[in-house]
Amino acid sequence: MWDEYLFPASVEEALEMLEAHGGEARIIAGGTDLVLQSQRGQCTARVMIDITRIPGLDHIEERDGLIYIGAQVTHSQVATSPLIRSRAGVLAEACGSVGGPQIRNVGTLVGNVVNALPAADGAIALFALDAEAEVAERAGRRWTPVAALYAGVGLCTVDPCAAMITQLRFRALGEGEAGAFERLAKRRALVLPILNTAAVVRLQGDKVERARIAIGPVAPTPFVATEAAEALVGQPPDEAFVAEAAKLAAQAAQPRDSLLRGSAEYRKAMVEVLVRRALWRAVLQEGEDANS
Amino acid sequence: MPTLKMILNGQEVTIDVEPGDLLANVLRDKLGLIGTKISCGEGECGACTVLVDGRAVDSCIYPALKAQGREVITIEGLGQDNRLDAIQQAFVDRTAPQCGYCIPGMVISAKALLDENPHPTRKEIKEGISGNLCRCTGYYQIIGAIELACERLAERGGPE
Hints:
The complex is a heterodimer. In chain A, 35% of the residues lie in helices and 26% in strands. Chain A is an alpha+beta fold. In chain A, helix 5 (89-95) packs antiparallel against helix 8 and helix 10 runs antiparallel to helix 11 (264-291). The interface between A and B is medium-sized, with 26 and 29 residues.
């Protein structure tokens, strides 16, 4: 399957290895997707550069109100992190619903982003959190919005044969803010979602100050329902406005007929249900936090 | 050919592997530990579950070289000298296996769960084995066996 399997000791060494192999090498972290892609011939790289032993990429930490998550952090680590559960619960919920325990123990959140699938649970939550990714290239490091990494189904603008994502960051949810993740699937583990959605709301007094709703897979990339979120701003977070926003989100979503996931009509109807549930749960959680 | 060094079921093992070898194949084909099963081959069914540094992983999609320097436990590493460990014995006593193919993976997932959480709720048990498929039993005997193992381990004062 592969001719070489290498363990660089630093990000710089990983990038040098990528360059030295001129497109024949690729970054691997957990490998839960990449091993299958290699077996199926979808990934033709001969050399794997395993970044899971590089020091300094295993952090989940908060600095100046921002939460940073390193490239080695697995879905299990995100799902069980006290920091993520308390300051970005929507992401903990999303990561806890990926695959099964064995997949979550190995697969990384950054890998979930690099694979660029519109149904990726972790990525949907990152979209709702307006997350950014740090991209390391030979020329240096730069931060870019996670949303800008998606070029189409399975297409990431970061070329894993030339660059790597070293960490993610997003603003920790603060006072008046809460999020929730909802997923519809045929069973509760080991299946891809029919639909998933993540919502984050910020309340100011008795009004919604800001909302962000991400939905997958209803487009080639994770879909942000801007209009629906904006319709909530300035409104009281009551059931009528939440239901209206969910309706707008369903109108904007463009799910396709899928043998795996169900008809477009069914899935459009379910977008409304899931978005309503996610928004409402976020609003109620915020209420609980405020009262506790 | 790269050399893989790991602690396998408590013993240091050194073996030459191909760069593309997966842990399940190394265990079964090169080391003769055929208790670890390969069923789906894509990390969907959990029959190949082993512990790496105490965490359950699907060894059929786990590059063997990732185990470099790690501690790996397979179903053969449980119990001692023909004596089953508490989880295995509970699976027997509750008649949890039917065809038996998923059972090594189920037992390893149960071990990962109980090592971390000795008193799981029924919901936590279901989540603990949610990465393992069984096509025979409907899971209830398996869940019952894990509950029985918890009771026995608690009486004994912890895992062996």
